[in-house]
Write a structure and sequence with these properties.
heterodimer, A: about 325 residues, alpha/beta, five-stranded parallel β-sheet, two-stranded antiparallel sheet, 10 helices, 7 strands, about 40% helix, B: about 350 residues, Rossmann fold, seven-stranded mixed β-sheet, 12 helices, about 35% helix
């Protein structure tokens, strides 16, 4: 698609900035993980940045998202602070969840990020419920439920499409097809096109180039317009590729399962490099300007690590606090 | 907090006749009262308009189809949808119909609803009530007779309500809906058609407060749900033999009012814990273990547990009776503590 007339240059530059922020954040996590500086494990989003940024750039601040185990990109694209994300990943008290959540459970309800999820597909019904709640409470908001190709084989995906359709909810099912269900090619596990799975329920489905941030945005914008008009849910399948493994450190057990040529061909279609080149060609940014943005984002991520390291560990007693909200008297 | 009893000071013919209602109707009144006071309370589940079991019957006439929503048979999804709905401001009340169906929605209950408030560092409260008829009802067989409360007690993050009287059912339901946390409310299948005193005006019973259903001095019987009326019948019978049995109904298993149980055991020195669930890791097991740890020196006899055999609930009436725990089991357990 040509340089988009509907998206201002300023917005496009912001989108590039967010994609770079995600990339540098994830690269930093890979680096920290290799050195044993992160507790637990992480699932990284490199290569898929155009999906989160394209989709979230079409949202209003009060709109909601639910995310996945590979959620850092969605969080950043919806406006989350990398300082507080990094602090959470370090298990520190200034983390979004005060160290109780970790990589797969970061949320910020004030930003409309109402769930990441450690269970594949687990967030889809929750997004459905947010769309139900908001519409019942008279709000003009929409919800995007992000999930992967693997989750498209979970029962709750089909059940949620059915409920969203019969209740005409303002919900966008956004499937990031990164080609792998954990360590198995999704093509071996998944019948038909995921984008077609809502057709029998009357849910329009489109497949979009998930490495083209403007194409993603356009598809999501159309789904949002439909949702806000009261016409119900839509399904978008964004075709993309996971540059890293299912989780960091998998080389210890997973072996080679992705052909070199396949990886190289997707890396050659790097969503960030492609978008950056387009902005240069269009005259929206000079190379110096985009390099400066990149450097700023790299520095922001460095600062997030410093912030996280400076943040105290939680008081161990917090482990046994906060199970229940206090009952108002 | 117990049902008001006739003081006996007025002549019987002048006393206002106590209003008696079915257990199911009392639950419905609790839901209705909560819906009247708070427009964000909604009901959803399968056939909640007609309400085959009855706890939501008629609510659609007063509150309309946007607040009383029939769902498809997609337990995992509508249970999960309540999490999102609660997170953005609704107070969903969900009919799961049969306790065994909890397992269909287990991910959304145990991994999502129970954990999101804690693992988000307290960013969100989830005021949701999941209620269901549960437990054996006579020939319902293995997949319609479960009482999954012991598993859910172990999840952490769910409050669990399991009343034994219509009066308690109404007041606890209202409190459960007002509670800012996910609550699972079990309506014992064999109690649904029982009647008891239920005042018409709205009232609430706090979660976490046990009720002494019968005072006694020789043995403490802690009974849950349908084991409460059984224990009361046994207690009345043993009174003829000069045995004084105290019957405590915890009413809620999370939070559990262990202090009331401990103080009773310190008085009687004997404990029989009766659950309507399989023995292994039952609520009776948990209560027995806690009492053994914390009131060991008060015990005059080994605590006894009364619970089901560790098998799926079988169909044939003779098999079902053998697998479940009835009044004979309760009586025998009490006598063992006195032997």
């Amino acid at each position: 698609m040509p340089s988009d007339a509907h998206v201002s240059v300023e917005d496009q530059v912001s989108m590039l900035r967010l994609m770079l922020r995600i990339r540098r954040f994830e690269e930093m996590l890979a680096h920290l993980f290799k050195r044993g500086r992160l507790p637990g494990f992480v699932h990284l989003y490199m290569g898929e940045e155009a999906v989160a940024v394209g989709a979230c750039s079409a949202l209003r601040p009060e709109d909601k998202i639910t995310s996945t185990h590979r959620g850092h990109g969605h969080l950043i694209a919806k406006g989350a602070s990398v300082d507080r994300m990094m602090a959470e990943l370090f298990g520190r008290v200034d983390g979004y969840c005060r160290g109780k959540g970790g990589s797969m459970h970061i949320v910020d309800f004030a930003l409309g990020i109402i769930g990441t999820n450690g269970i594949v597909g687990g967030g889809i019904p929750i997004g459905l419920g947010a769309a139900l709640g908001d519409s019942q409470l008279g709000r003009d908001t929409v919800t995007i439920s992000f999930f992967g190709d693997g989750a498209s084989n979970q029962g709750v995906f089909f059940e949620s499409m059915n409920l969203a359709a019969i209740w005409k909810l303002p919900l966008i099912f956004c499937c990031e097809n990164n080609q792998y269900t954990e360590w198995t090619p999704t093509s071996k596990l998944t019948a038909g096109r995921i984008a077609d799975r809502g057709a029998s329920m009357g849910i329009p489905g489109v497949q979009v180039d998930g490495n083209d941030v403007l194409a993603v945005r356009e598809a999501v914008q159309a789904a949002i317009d439909r949702a806000r008009a009261g016409e119900g849910p839509s399904l978008i399948e964004a075709m993309t590729y996971r540059w890293h493994g299912h989780n960091e450190g998998e080389e210890a057990f997973a072996g080679d399962y992705r052909p070199e040529r396949e990886q190289a061909s997707w890396r050659a279609r790097d969503p960030i490099a492609t978008f950056r080149a387009r902005l240069h060609t269009d005259g929206a940014l000079t190379e110096e300007q985009s390099d400066a943005i990149d450097a700023e984002e790299a520095a922001r991520v460095e600062a997030a690590v410093a912030f996280a390291e400076a943040s105290p560990m939680p008081d161990p007693e917090e482990a046994v606090q906060g199970l229940f909200a206090a009952v108002p008297s | 907090m117990t049902a008001p009893v006739d003081s006996g000071t007025a002549p019987p013919e002048a006393a206002p006749k106590a209003r008696r209602e079915y257990f199911i109707a009392a639950m419905r009144e609790g839901i209705r009262d909560a819906m009247r006071e708070d427009p964000t309370v909604i009901v959803m589940g399968e056939d909640v308009d007609r309400s085959i079991i009855g706890a939501t019957r008629g609510l659609i006439d007063e509150f309309g189809p946007t607040r009383v929503r029939n769902t498809p048979i997609s337990e995992a999804t509508f249970v999960g949808a309540c999490i999102g709905a609660a997170a953005v401001g609704l107070r969903p009340v969900v009919d799961l119909m049969v306790g065994s169906f909890v397992y269909v929605a287990m991910d959304q209950i145990a991994n999502q609803a129970a954990k999101l408030p804690y693992m988000s560092g307290g960013q969100v409260a989830l005021p949701i009530v999941y209620f269901t008829m549960s437990g054996p009802s006579g020939g319902s067989a293995a997949q319609h007779s479960e009482n999954p409360h012991p598993m859910l007690m172990n999840v952490a993050g769910l409050k669990i309500v399991m009343p034994s009287t219509p009066y308690d059912a109404k007041g606890l339901m209202h409190s459960a809906i007002r509670d800012p946390n996910p609550v699972v409310f079990f309506q014992d299948a064999v109690l649904g058609g029982t009647k008891g005193e239920v005042p018409e005006p709205a009232y609430q019973i706090p979660l976490g407060v046990a009720d002494v259903k019968r005072a006694g001095t020789d043995v403490t019987v802690v009974a849950i749900a349908s084991q409460v009326p059984r224990a009361l019948r046994v207690a009345a019978e043993l009174e003829q033999d000069g045995i004084s049995v105290e019957v405590i109904d915890p009413r809620t298993l999370v939070p559990l009012d262990i202090e009331t149980i401990l103080s009773s055991v310190r008085k009687t020195g004997r404990l029989v814990a009766c659950d309507s669930a399989r023995l292994t890791c039952s609520a009776a097991s948990e209560i027995t273990a806690t009492v053994s740890e914390r009131a060991f020196d008060a015990l005059k006899a080994a605590p006894q547990r009364v619970a089901w055999e560790d098998v799926p609930v079988p169909f044939s009436p003779v098999l079902e009776a053998r697998a479940l725990a009835d009044e004979d089991d309760i009586r025998a357990a009490i006598r063992r503590t006195l032997a």
